[in-house]
Amino acid sequence: MAATKGARPRRFALSMRAKEALAGYLFILPWAIGFLVFVAGPMLFSLYASFTNYNVTSKFDWIGLANYKKMFFSDPFYWKSVWNTLYFTVFSVPINIAVGVVSAVLLFQNVPFQRMWRTIFYLPKVLTGVAVLMLWVWVFNPQDGLMNNFLRSIGVDNPPLWFASPKWSKPALIVMSAWSATGGILLYLAGLQAIPKQLYEAAQIDGASGWRQFLNVTLPMLSSTIFFKLITGINGAMQYWEAALIVTNPPGSPSNSTLFNGLYIWNTAFRDMKMGYASAMAWVMFIITMILAAIQFWGSKRWVYYEGERR
Amino acid sequence: MGMIGRKVTAVFLASLLAATLLAGCGGGAKKGGESTTPQTQQPTQQQPQQTETPKAEPVSIEFWGWWSSETRMPTINKIVDKWNSEHPDIQVTYTFVPFGEMNTKYLASVAGGNPPDMVVSPDIFTSIQRGENGQAMELSSLGALDLKDLYYPNFWDAVTTDDGKIYALPWVGETKFLYYNKQLFREAGLDPEKGPVTWDDLWTMAEKLDKWEGSKLVQMGFHPLMGNFGFQGWVWNAGGLLFQNDETPTINADKNVEVLEWIKKWTDRYGYDVFSGFKGSFGTGPQHAFIQGKIGMVVETATFEKEIKTNAPTLEYGVVPVPTPDGKQHQNASYSGGFSVELPVGSKYPQQALEFAKYWTQEAAVIWAQEQNDFPAYTKAVETITTPEFKRAADNMQYTGLIPVPLTATNYLDFVNPAVDEVLMGNMSAKAALDQAQSQIEDVVAENLAGN
User: Fold this and answer.
1) Which of A150, B131, B338, B425, CA to CA, is 20 to 30 A from B163?
2) Cβ-defined contact of A26 to B283 (cutoff 8 Å)
3) Which CATH number is A66-303 given?
4) Contacts of B410 by beta carbon, 8 Å cutoff, 6+ apart
5) Residues B204-259: pLDDT tens digits?
6) In terms of CA atoms, which chain A residue is nearest residue B8?
């Protein structure tokens, strides 16, 4: 009896660890399958397609490195589009993070109507869409827009033409993106919530000013959240282009100043039907983004602090 | 117990999730790029009649267009209902696909092997390209050759190749006019019954119509790039061409350089910043500079008249053919875009779809033109529609070019537009900018001819 009692569980029983692992794998299975079928599969296909003249319907011939050669050496728009994208990334990501952190810290204070403020600041995230872009077109209207009326009222005689000027079209888009950056406050608020009160108390006992506390307590404790937003922000900015499609006409104008890499890839793929070339461009962008992320991860050792981590 | 229960639930939930996801994928993958409606109708309609009479097998076909608005849908429904009541054996369903997604959805549906039976293509000039790429069906083998004389020749040429392949049926086009504001003409001391005829007229009239408040331009007389004509339009209007034929770009021809210099002269008259600031301040519909009464003269499409009537019913305007350099109208004085209908490769009922395509581009095009103001490619439409607006557009068709987009460089405007920007900003001379665009487009042509 003892033998049978012992035998049965032994055949089927997995250790606790294995059971947990199994349950875990079952839980992620749907996403794993989804990833393999709908992301990894198409990605590998596009890698192959980037060496062909694939146009979906009739052509699918191996042309070696021709797409890459064209991209690097003879396409007049490619580098322009990469430059536009990097320009946007370099300015918009830090600005968005600064706006997000500052507004989150302000909203974390015990101000009256705190909930109302939080809702208002979160609104851009909910509203983002074509309608909002059209509103921004009005804000940046060179003659009667809010922005230029404001600039004129503080004494700027020749305010920028924004979307009508190759010099100012990207800054206009960066300002636009900063507005919706307040939508990121949710994550920062969660991060702020997690900072132990006693750290502030200790700092106060040491006589640290509010600003000092922000620099030496809040920022380091928030650094992992900021790092997360930095990585996702760079990824997002490198793929930024939809706004350019909607606010500029023809898209990418004036003088190709808003021809972002994503827009160029989209045009090449879905308007000109050059899927092969578009795939090649997408892969180069992927690699550039990977390198940027790798640099961030490497650099993060110097400034990102995870609670409970030992150094 | 609690522990085991939780585990079981967890595993159950996980597998349930996996199952639903897979089920979802199955359906999605099968349907490809297709959107919604007809699948469900097809079997239910087919089954009962199949058992009764095998001879008259009714089929359901689906077509895609990009209209969903309240102003468009009544016309679509009218057209479709009429067909369905007259053709019990070919039942048609309309599916809405947003304009911006039409190209991709259409392409994906063909690649996925489950396309609709007819597509209202978003651009008549690229029908041949889609045909040659194996996306749109060749129609002469279905008997479309007989249809040639039913459509205006320039429309027909836009969808057929030199060697006689037919890749679409032409549906509607447009023509463009110069609209002028009679009220502003009167205020400026100009005769409101006499619109401009030559390019010089434009200049002298605009001089009287311009209004400044200090350094701010509050009313513009005219600028060639306001409205809806573009650099290419003025090149054709001046009798020039951007492509000699499909393989030979002539972007930097002397005449084209002159046209660009002429546009530059207009820009300098206001100053680039003033011009682009002014231009950037207006939009379309109620925000259009002409509808706001801020510009004296503008070139716009024939259907723009409907927008004036909707958005500014009290605005007094005159309509004249687009002025040319010497005042003489010629076949390219105005130009047209247009729409065609294509039968996607892989459609199950091409013969029936062609029947519907004929109806759509002929009888239905007349209904459409009557209610929606586009200009049908179907020649007999003129006999039945008699509104003055339509007559005017019909009369202007002889001065309206349907200038084909070169298949070797469908994206040539990507090179031309920035060149124009550079010239207007004063960064490059007209000659240098167009030389550069020419050599860039030559590269594109060469590359496409090589098949890459």
Assistant:
1) B338
2) no
3) 1.10.3720.10
4) A272, B125, B126, B129
5) 999 999 999 988 899 999 999 999 999 999 999 999 999 998 889 999 999 999 99
6) A23
